[in-house]
Fold this protein.
Amino acid sequence: MNKVKRILNFWKEVNLLTPVTVKSIAFKNQESLSAKDVLKVPYNRIEDSLLLNNDKKYEIEIGFGDIKNTYLYEKGNIEKEDFVDGDGGESFIFAFKIDGDKKYKEDSFTISKFVFILLKNIISKNYDDIEYEIKKFIENIEIDLKSYENYNVENVKKITSLILKELNIDNLDEKILKKSFYLKLFSSNEEEDSNESSFFQMDFYTKDLEIIAKTNLKDNSLLSNIIYSKTNKNRQKIDDNKEFLAEITLPKNMPVGKWPSKYNPSLMQAAAINICTSKEYSPNIFSVNGPPGTGKTTLLKEIIADTIVKKAKIIADLNSTDLENIKTNTTISYYCNYYKIPDELKKLGIIVSSNNNSAVENISKDLPKAEDVLSKDTLTNLFDINEHENIYFTKDSENIFGDNPRTWGLISAPYGRKANIQKILDILPEKKQKNEGFNFSFGENIPDFKEAISVFKEKYEKVLKYRENFNSNIEKFFRNKDKIAEINNSSDQISNLKNKIEYLIEELKKLQDSKEYKDSILKQKREQKSNIENSYSFFTKIANKLAGEKNPKILELNKDIEILNEELININKDLRNIQNDKDELHKKIQVLENSKKILKELEEEINMFFKTYSSNENDLKLLERCSDLENFYSDIISNEKTQESCPWGVEEFNRLREELFACSLSLIEAYIANSRGIKANLKLLKLLLSGENLGYSVEERKNVFKECFHTLNLLIPVLSTTFASVSRAFKDFEENELGIVIIDEAGQATPLSAMGLLYRSNRCIIVGDPLQVEPVMTVTSTLIRAIANKYELNKLEKEFNIAGKIFNYTSPSLSIQTLADYANLYYGKIGETEVGCPLVVHRRCLSPMFDISNKISYDDRMINKCMPDKKPINYVLEKNEFIDVKGQEVGNGDHYVKKQGEKIIKIIKDCIENREIDVFENSKNLYVISPFTSVINELKKDIKEAFKNEVKINEWCNNCLGTVHKFQGKEANSVILLLGCDNNSKSSAQWAAQAANILNVAATRAKKRFAIIGDLELWGKLNFFKDAKEVLDKFNKE
């Protein structure tokens, strides 16, 4: 079994052994119970419940629990574990449904696999055998459930006793098995939504994990690379890479479309946007490290805008609204045909997802928010609903979102949950409505497709031409700048060259003198030789020649003449070389003299560049900074000016790109409004999602649904869903059949929860922060080790360093963010932590909250650009401080210290009675966060008792009190971190201080004021809390 398969099987079994708990809900009194409310009923009081309701108005789901997890671990022979918060918790056991006719609803029985496996002690068996035993158990119980024709209280008790007996827990002590019924009502005629109808936490991931584990994933597939990324020689660290950042931020790498805003992204935002959108880079796995307040949503908006422009370009090139017609074998002729969406468009559909339902829905609601794109906040008026009645299916958007707040267009919508889908279905064509008769909300004013193409193409070419010219002029600018620098150095160069010439002239003179001297000596030697030879008689010359004799004096002269000739040859050669060098230096001087003449021309070109591309003072300042690359990128990690700048982000270019985004939406709108095939697909989608039987085979239905969904994703470019909805909402999709998946808050997402969506995606963009909220893993570490040993995960060499802690695949805190960060080709570093492209400019929290977070989590890398209040404002907390309150905790795993809770109550009372602050009126006034659930539970009781006459007290407690997981992505003006614990629970305090995450999240929820309440003697010595105290003290002294 390869590494990826072993990891998948490990996750699959971890998911199987996740305790099933009742969702965090407010139980209602019987008198106020209505549809979708939940009633908790003791076993001996079920006869008082609404079970015997006779009007058949509701179906009833009956759940049973709760059993102590510590007992289950004992039964499963799992090593005992110490729990830092509470006693290990309780688990839900089983549930089933009774329909309006008081009969068992088939296939509705479900049992906690976690409970079953541990009670039966079958954890050591292989996965398939475990699943088989669970399946057989369910089948046998269903036979008994069906045996009752008419469910009443006695029958419910009988079947419950039978199930408990089969599990061999029917005689357990009340301290181990509480025996409580949970009852939930929902309308009988309402189609079931498994996410909403069930009040206990279901298993949302097993089906997808099983499918993926059986799939033959290629080594280089997107999912394989995320699960177990291999070393890539092309991987590069970018946050201090001047050359890379200078290149990636050039106009040629900027997207041609821009989200409507007059503001530029920061440097690292721009780098991330350009990497994601540039054709040359654009990896299929990209991750962004986005601490709080660093503009993750802003970054995503730019990526979305670019994707929409790319869609529009494909549509413009198609130049037709006709789609490929595909016939099915249904006997219902009206539904025989569906239409194929071009593959290029499918790949550009966007799905945003997260573990956190509110996070994904907030993105869907934030994107179309009209108040953010009014003329005053953008570079055009093209998205201002006060000036344009329709921007992009605006009325349809209002039909989904309502008018609070108002929306500018149907850019996004929540998907996944049934209630969300229903809102979308309401804007789609009705069953009997003819395709040509459905015009969305346009009425008679259907946009002209050909005209929209023409407008788009003209604007597209204009943006491309501007970008191309801008980029080439930047390159020319730097060439000219280099030339000017050379010219400015030319005077010194000319002087140096002239000095060299003078030196050569001197050398020439010396050589010439030497030559003349040698010539005269040579002449003398020749004359001497000639004189000697002439002194011999004719006969003497003949005799000497015949005898081979030579006059010694002549021999000596010959030798001297030969040496002199060689010396003269060398002197002549040196004379030529020096003369050539002298001529060459004269030429260089001439070139430099000539270049000085074009200096003015080059300077004019430089000035023209600034004038052409700066339409205001901000542009000019930006261009001046960008043009000095050496200073712009000096000390880049801590250079505030550089980090908050977007290189080359000038207003005119941004305006053109914003206009192109608007034209792109108009073209897509016209394409959809004029396409018969799109309307047909949307109608089919409505029928399929409404549960209509259209006569398709299983395979046909799957194929039809996929094309129809892609049609919806064309109409609504961004759809959001939680991971929990993926297996059901996208069950028809296989590997790589969805487009771009964006995962938000990925630092708190377990890898196994994201597998289903990533498996189906073509590309993924993972956004989050591993230094904020960690994933919630309710499987105990001892149980994880037992599963890991089955799959030999201890033999995997891959490890992950997060804030100095070493993680592996068995670490409960391992997130999908970390896996993506290590698979990302482009990464940065915070201390020793490898992260995705790091965003470092923070705009949420004032000091000292920012300072605490920056010190304990971000290696002082962050740059704070949050603006302080212009005038004094009255907040719940008057100052930022560590409030020392000692006391005794409740004990037995409950870390609440009553005196600390009383301090919070005193602060709230002071606000209401003396400072005219109605704390409960606005949830943004105050959050109280604790590391421990037990502290929050007890605090809620005390606050509700202290303020029982406050109308909104229950709502406020539910919204504003919680652990860090509750407040991820949220913010309030004041935040109190309530620590709890005493000297008897030091280990629990040490647990909370083993990483900076808890304190980091709490501090960064606070925009204006932050206080910590706890025992200073206990907490003030612990990691990170000691730092926080120092920062707070220093801040208060300044």
The chain has four domains: 19-202, 222-367+411-431+650-838, 488-613, 849-1037. The two ends are 61 Å apart (CA to CA).
